[in-house]
Amino acid sequence: MTSPTPTVVNEYEADVVVTAVTRPAEDVVEVTMAHPDGLALPGWTPGAHIDLVLDHDTVRQYSLCGSPADPSALKVAVLLAPDTRGGSKRVHELTPGATVRIRGPRNHFPLVSAPRYLFVAGGIGITPLLPMIEEADAAGADWHLHYGGRTRSSMAYLDRLEQYGDRVTVVPQDEAGLLDLATILGSPDDRTLVYCCGPEPLLQAVEERCASWPSGALHLERFSPKAVEREGADTAFELVLQRSGITTTVPEDKSVLQAMRDAGVSVLASCMEGTCGTCETEVVEGEIDHRDSVLDPDEQESGEVMMVCVSRCRGARLVLDA
Amino acid sequence: MRISTVPTSPADTTAQPRRRCVDVPHNAWYAAATSDEVGRAPLSRRMLGNRVVVYRTVAGDAVALEDRCAHRPVPLSSGRLEGDDIVAGYTGFRYAPDGRCVAVPTQANVPIGARVRAFPVHDDGSFVWVWTGDPNLARLRPPPQAPWLQDPEWVTFGDSWVTQAPLRLLLDNFSDITHVAHVRPEVAPPALVAGPMPPLEVTVSETGMSFARQYPPVPVPAWQAPMLGVPADEAYPQREEGEFLSPGLWVDRWHADTPEGRASFVFTHALTPVDETSTRHVWRVSRNFADSSAATGTLTPLMDGYYRAVREALEDMQRIVSEDGPRADVLVAADAAAVQVRRIMDRLVADETGTR
Question: Is there a contact between A6 and B347 if contact means CB atoms under 8 Å apart?
Answer without folding.
Answer: no
